[in-house]
Amino acid sequence: MVQKTQEEIKIKKIYFEDRGQDFLSWTLDEEGFVLISEPFQTNIWKGTQVILETIQIGARPKVILEWNKARKGIRGVKDITELNYQVIKIE
Length: 91
Prior knowledge:
Structural class: mainly beta
Largest sheet: 4 strands, antiparallel
Order of helices and strands: EEEHEEEE
Strand content: 35-45%
Number of helices: 1
Oligomer: single chain
């Protein structure tokens, strides 16, 4: 597996409207995976994939969530959901 250098990885930062949630921005890698959630909840959102085509100013992006439903014998169930917060800025 070849590691990409920092210059080769396109990183995007998106900012959300503030409605009292614990995250106001996400830093994403080139495939839309959350690397950093600020100011809080990196431990919750890191690794979540944002569908890049849904990132637009004024839009609520869609994310792919993977649920662990081990109690029901189901693992790795994926679900697409729309966030409750609009994007207000993209860097």
